[in-house]
Amino acid sequence: MRNMKRAAALGAALVLCVSCFAGCGSKDSSGNTSNPTSRTAMEDLDYGATLRIDKKAYGVPMQYDKRFFEDEASLQVIGNYYRSIAENDSALFEQVQLPAYLDYTIKTVHKSEFTTAELVQATHDSWKEHMGGDFAISLVDIVGCEVSRTYTGITTILDMLDSIQEGISGKIDVIYELTVDVYLTPADSGIVGLETQTKKDGQVLFLFHVDDQWYLIYN
Fold it and tell me: pTM (2 decimals)?
């Protein structure tokens, strides 16, 4: 019974929160989404106006709005995060996490009851159970992106950063709050893109730029 309770707690600890963003694009009085005109500046278009899909560069197929991710290193961090779950790779998971926040999470949130490897294993196993067997990621679809230049105005998980300032050597100069849909497919199926209907909706990730490096934490 004790092991069952521990397993349940571990699984719950790794459940990613689900969030919904309003759809991109403007609407007219009839409620129809209007197409951007040639007079609209590219930088003024909503997220999703210039989507790109890359099937190989980041370890997992990824779809994103190229205007929001000019630094390819930020996309590599996102790709490595999802690879770490798919491949059950705790070392890769640790590489993409903001170190001070990961340490805080293990010691304070989880009371040092679980290792990083156990947390990654729990997420991997829950996705495997969801798929009914071994799985691969057919697409990481970044469907929403909010950008903030200061983290003090973002609530929920980011408020915790105030308590770990001593562990952050530099200034957090940009934060992306991402909403991501992840499409899963049976392992070795060869499926890439939106062909599969098995997906996990609305995962929330926070992408940070600190001391010329990108880090990621999940909500």
Answer: 0.75
